[in-house]
UniProtKB/TrEMBL annotation:
Lineage: Bacteria, Pseudomonadati, Pseudomonadota, Betaproteobacteria, Neisseriales
Signal peptide (residue range): none
InterPro entries: Flavoprotein-like_sf (IPR029039), FMN_Rdtase-like_dom (IPR005025), FMN_Rdtase_MsuE-like (IPR019912), NAD(P)H-dep_FMN_reductase (IPR051814)
Name this polypeptide is given: MsuE subfamily FMN reductase
Organism superkingdom: Bacteria
Residue span, NADPH-dependent FMN reductase-like domain: 5-148
Family per similarity comment: Belongs to the SsuE family.
Length: 180
């Protein structure tokens, strides 16, 4: 029997609850269904107070160091971030600034984002994908973008979004099996 896949889910929102976290939870649940998966949740909302002043991973307090280590050891990453002024939040970038630049080589990454309107739908292509290209990850071809209208009380309410999540999960599963 093979070891479970280490799936790390990174929520890039500094708020709780958040639409990005709800999107992340749906993607993670879909990917984990039916296979041995060890899921680690990394929440920027919980880590945000620890990030200011940390300029190196070696200086990180224990909770932040654990999150960094989990990201660096991931077999698969699922990342969801809110759109903030046309990009991902600065603290989200700061967290990934602490990740060793060679630790994510060839790691499959499923990208997702949420924003107030369709105007920000290209954030996955123009902001998130280049960030993870720096780490030489395998960003999966299909990301998921959601707008505020896709949610009710921080829960997915749009059938169209549910279909996009299902499609992204089905296309990502072969990458998980390849890592297992």
């Amino acid at each position: 029997m093979s070891a479970p896949i280490k799936l790390v889910a990174v929520s890039g929102s500094t708020s709780q609850p958040s639409r990005s976290a709800a999107l992340l939870d749906a993607l993670t649940a879909g990917l984990a269904a039916g296979q041995a998966t060890e899921i680690t949740q990394v929440s920027l909302a919980e880590l945000a107070p620890l990030l200011p002043g940390v300029v190196s991973a070696k200086d990180a307090p224990p909770a932040l160091a654990q999150a960094i280590a989990a990201i660096e050891r991931a077999d698969v990453l699922v990342v969801a971030a809110p759109v903030y002024r046309g990009s991902y939040p600065g603290l989200f970038k700061h967290l990934f600034d602490l990740i060793h630049h060679e630790s994510l080589f060839n790691v499959p990454v499923l990208l997702a984002a949420s924003g107030g309107s369709d105007r920000h739908a290209l954030v996955i292509e123009h902001q998130l994908r280049p960030l993870f290209a720096f780490f030489q990850t395998l960003t999966l071809p299909l990301g998921v973008y959601a707008t505020d209208a896709d949610f009710a009380d921080y829960r997915i309410s749009s059938p169209a979004l549910a279909e996009r999540i299902e499609l992204a999960v089905s296309r990502a599963r072969p990458w998980l099996r390849a890592r297992g």
